[in-house]
Amino acid sequence: MSAAAPAGPTTVRRATDADLAQVGQVTAHAYVADGLVEADHWYVDELRDTAARAAAATVLVAVAPAVDGAPAERVVGTITLAAPGSPYAEIARDGEVELRMLAVDPAARRSGVAEQLVVAALREAVGRGDRRVVLSTLETMHAAHRLYARLGFVAAPERDWTDELTMRVHAWHAPAAPSARTESATWPPLRVVEVDGWRVGLSGGVTRRASSTLALRDVEDVADTVGRVERLYRDDGAPAVFRVGDPGNPAGLAAVLDARGYAVAAVTDVLVRDLDATVRPADGDPGTLGGGLCVRGTDVPDDGWLDLWLGGKGGAREPSRAIVTGAPARYLTATGADGTAVAVIRAAVVDDWVALSCLQVVPSARRRGIGRALTLHALAAAWEHGARRAFLQVEADNDVACRLYGALGFRPAHRYAYRVQPGHDVRTGC
Ligand SMILES: CC(C)(COP(=O)(O)OP(=O)(O)OC[C@H]1O[C@@H](n2cnc3c(N)ncnc32)[C@H](O)[C@@H]1OP(=O)(O)O)[C@@H](O)C(=O)NCCC(=O)NCCS
């Protein structure tokens, strides 16, 4: 049974029990429809048995919204991540995770669902601390080969293997992430206090990045250090926020925060890509964006730039200005023919890295290629300023932004979570 083509944005998330029957159907249907396996082959039962798969591995699903009175969400694709030594791993070694059973409903193909699934799987793998991802394909899976190559997988012929058929192995290595200190240097807190070697960022709660603690080394008594950090935030009039998931975090940090009731306020992916001289604005002109739009770049953000970034929340303009101007950066604004600003982005160069942030397109101008074009402009400007690598932080559930950045060649390098003291929230921003 085939579903109709997706009517709206497709999102990727972990499968729930309620999805499993549909996941089994989609997987089996996709393989049989492509002639990869005969409908009566034993492997079709394995493809359908998603309960067993979900118990032994991580199953992701791509879900599309309803069409014509169908259930609220429809599974249109799936992928499985298997740990080495687990029942669904065929080739994974220590430090690797293996992708299995990528399947997209034939009716939902040619719309980027497979790419969304594989990229989500890479982000999931990196988030679990796996730096290498492997998979096996059949020689005949040409569409899949093109996709894997585009995403940076390389053939590993020395690991090819034969069962009934010859399987070709491809491997992906997570790119290096900027250090937490490099990230922080592109978005510095208003004030930093060191507590037992932890860097406590204090900015009155304005933006998580500038109002959080980097706990990058072991301490004698984690609970005691956390308590002293909390007092600093209380004096700053803001909730305590800790970044968790960074190399160097003390082993007991998450448990101490759990015991104190800290919630996960956001899971953030760090995406990176290399730059080269070919990064150019689409029409090659740094002053225009195409479609009759112009681009203006400044070294300080004006009120219009800040207001567009903040989405019209004028109240937070001043503390936000102080934070974004804490590091040298370029502030790009896309404007229409009448001079109205429609999009902004910030590019801060530190060493050979450029950090992109604050990308915002006004809702009425979205889906016209402006986000993509402005990001390319920012990368080109950064190249001129000496940057050779780019990174950005994006909330893991921001599917739209993740798709945009994936299409621009950004790949997952790191994942961390912000944990916030109970009873508070923190004003966000970027
Ligand atoms: C994310 C954002 C900047 C995209 O801006 P945009 O101008 O609409 O994006 P573009 O038109 O350039 O789209 C480029 C690609 O992004 C993806 N994309 C953009 N909007 C999408 C949507 N609603 N659904 C699915 N994919 C989408 C697509 O891959 C698209 O390519 P395609 O048009 O060839 O399919 C915009 O949605 C926005 O301002 N969101 C709120 C702020 C935000 O999330 N910023 C990012 C913070 S890290």
TrEMBL record:
The keyword Signal does not apply. It comes from the Bacteria. Gene3D superfamilies: 3.40.630.30. SUPFAM superfamilies: Acyl-CoA N-acyltransferases (Nat) (SSF55729). Keywords: Transferase. Residues 10-172, 293-430 form the N-acetyltransferase domain. Pfam families: Acetyltransf_1, Rv0428c_C. InterPro entries: Acyl_CoA_acyltransferase, GNAT_dom, NAT_camello-type, Rv0428c-like_C. Coiled coil: none annotated. This is GNAT family N-acetyltransferase.
